[in-house]
Structure prediction request, 122 residues.
Amino acid sequence: MASQSQGIHQLLQAEKRAKDKLEEAKKRKVKHIRQAKDEAMLEVDGYRMQRDKEFRMRQSKVMGSQSNLSEEIEEQTQEKIKELNESYSNCVESVLTQVLNMVCDVKPEIHQNYRAPHEPPP
Prediction:
């Protein structure tokens, strides 16, 4: 009987050691997973910061070129306005003279669609 209880006692101790090893393995696994998760988060944060920096650089290039475009458009507009004002100044006298001549020099003529009351239609 003593050998049976000693065998049972050895089995219980072996079972306890196996359970302890299993718990230790689970702890290592959880620790390893947690460490991998932390490393992945650091890598993701680094990648995100890099992409954000690239985005800001591209954005500043685009926005910078847009401000240059608006300045160029404003300059071109001012030049066109100046040209139109000069053209107006050069042509205003001749146009007014032509208009006044057309209005003041009336040449009475019978309109081509006018029919006398006693004329037959063509």
